[in-house]
Give the backbone structure.
Amino acid sequence: MNEQIHRGLRAAPARPTPTLEDLATAAGVSRSTASRAINGGSRVSPEAQAAVDAAVLSLGYTPNRAARSLVTRRTSSIALVINEPDARVMMDPFFAAVITGVTEALRETDMQLVLLMSRAGGDPSRTVRYLRGGHVDGAIVVSHHKADGWTEELAASGLPTVFIGRPWDTGLGIHYVDVDSFEGGRLAALHLAAAGRTRLATITGPLDMTAAEDRLDGWQAGLKEAGLPAGLVAHGDFTPAGGTEAAERLLAEDSGVDGIFAASDLMARGAITALKAAGRSVPGDVAVVGFDDHLTVPGELPLTTINQPTVEMAEKAARLLLADIEDPGAAREPVIYPARLVVRESSEPQAG
Amino acid sequence: MNEQIHRGLRAAPARPTPTLEDLATAAGVSRSTASRAINGGSRVSPEAQAAVDAAVLSLGYTPNRAARSLVTRRTSSIALVINEPDARVMMDPFFAAVITGVTEALRETDMQLVLLMSRAGGDPSRTVRYLRGGHVDGAIVVSHHKADGWTEELAASGLPTVFIGRPWDTGLGIHYVDVDSFEGGRLAALHLAAAGRTRLATITGPLDMTAAEDRLDGWQAGLKEAGLPAGLVAHGDFTPAGGTEAAERLLAEDSGVDGIFAASDLMARGAITALKAAGRSVPGDVAVVGFDDHLTVPGELPLTTINQPTVEMAEKAARLLLADIEDPGAAREPVIYPARLVVRESSEPQAG
DNA sequence: GGTCGATCTGGGAGCGCTCTCATGTACCGA
DNA sequence: TCGGTACATGAGAGCGCTCCCAGATCGACC
């Protein structure tokens, strides 16, 4: 009796959003049948299906995601985890490309993208807790550092996860998508050597990231292959400012540098700024090669770089994740995209 | 009895995530008390609170968001709606800045950011349906066009919504944050006039966006104020390529143009490309003014532009939204940030 | 004609949480 | 000593959905 009063009171203010129950009533079927009709409609007669479809339209019914996910244990959302101290990383076109690719892959799905930026100020474990808390069906980790220790935690949690960029510990069976960074570094070295440059230097990314390490290793292997001595190494942080500072240090150590490979386009731009400020011409005095190939601001000196199909990689990562959510535990090989040298004016005096 | 068998079977594979019930048992209190302790702890004795806190730690308890939101009707997530046909808009630093700002505002909240990109291929109403479906507690709409018709729909739905950039219909009481685009356009005109330029032209954004319209109106008002004739108008789309094409059209119409105001930095860059290709020097032959001031690629010609505090605006929008979710219906005035002229080399021959 | 299988349907439990309400306990002033 | 107030607590319902199960319906086949 108390309950009845309750229901009466609650129903009073014109129920706002229709529930499955309302839908079923409108369609003249049971809640169960309505549910089946909504979800793919197996074991539903054509008439019942049609009645439900019509009711959905006339009522403007949308399933309550919370209720559904409470019982299915699926949330229909995945997280894009960006683990960088500074929020300004979003300014890096790399992340824009990643978001573009992931969005594209989710296009025809009803999956939603939750942006998870874990940052310096916040509790680092909070992100992992969130991920383990069953709030998302899977995660794409896009930028992770050695000290994160996330790889193990995520692998242990069993949450479907795909890394963009090789994780530090690949023995855990974590899926990932990567570009062949080693080969990219090597190609840069060979290209500069072939152009007759001999006093070569590189500006690395933060070496707690595999991409930075691989590019450096490849670079050094390329130098050796070309019969050149291991050149100078300056450490950057993938930002333009970092590239500028690193280039200044390089010039201070060896003012005769005639070729620089920066592990990202942004750093290459920064390096060019420093070179010009120091009175060096590019590519006349110093040839510069970047890495990424998705900085397309017009009116700049076209940059020789290593192309990385970031949008495509992100799309692939998302599709891998969806597959992994659908069929967990299936072993999947890492997907490595080839690195491709794109020669432009910053390394070729005669070009342009 | 059947039920018992069920529960037995289900419990078998070591219950994975602890529920509130488990937590209560571990803490030696009832589910109700545990719930109260979790949620702020009013009407909970210090001992009970301590016991629950300890249990949370030892069990690694995380509330099930779906269950919670099923009863509270809150999802603890807000949507960032980006309504652009081309996914590549993400490459525009403007959106990066918006994401940065929103993320910053959500930092100390347990709110999550859901990225909602509605695009050409998809069903346009799908986004609105999603928003009305109660999947998020509120929405920030960042880029909307006249034909969307969203303003009315969203206003009618009662979903807390904040626009970044004035919506077309401000009579609906929709909250928004904007920069004074009119004043920005005016400042650009006055600046170029003061620099002695007389054959002025502008490159607009898509005129189905209020920002583009306001900048054009302000520009024309400024010209009139300076006693100059209404100059040429070319339409762009906020992209570099659009800026290039628009500038080409301007040059074709009047080869003697000596000052151009582009409604975005990206378009200004594109225009400079076209000008240089046509043999014009910047700022010698043609002075160029942009709008945005968040394109900071080093090594480029520093651009005179109208500064727009995008990160701050996005942060403000998010805070407004949070306030609106907390206390719906409270009337809130639009927040308009001042536009500020930043003079750099692209319009000042003597500078640099 | 009766039985079997296939197909469709509805009843009902329960996912994990919050919230209302009734009860229990402690402490105040009279 | 007792009624009253304040606060802490637990029982229980119910949010909207899915899914299991049992029942109903209908041909088809022996």
